[in-house]
Amino acid sequence: MSGTVLLRRSSLGDVVLLGAVTGSVPGPVTVVTAPTWAPLAASLAGVDRVVSWPREARPADLARTIGGGRWVDLQDSVRSRWLCMVAGQPTARVHKRSVARRLRLLGVPVPPRPPVGDLYAEACGVAPREAPWIELPGATRDALALLPGATWATKRWAPERFSAVGRAWDGPVVVLGSMAERTLCAGVADGVPGATVLCEDGFDQTLEALTRVRVAVGNDSGLLHLAGACGIPVVAVFGSTHPDDGFFAWPAEVVQEEVGCRPCTLKGRVRCPLGDLRCLEIEPERVIAAVERVCGC
Question: What is the CATH code of the structural domain delimited by 143-295?
Answer without folding.
Answer: 3.40.50.2000
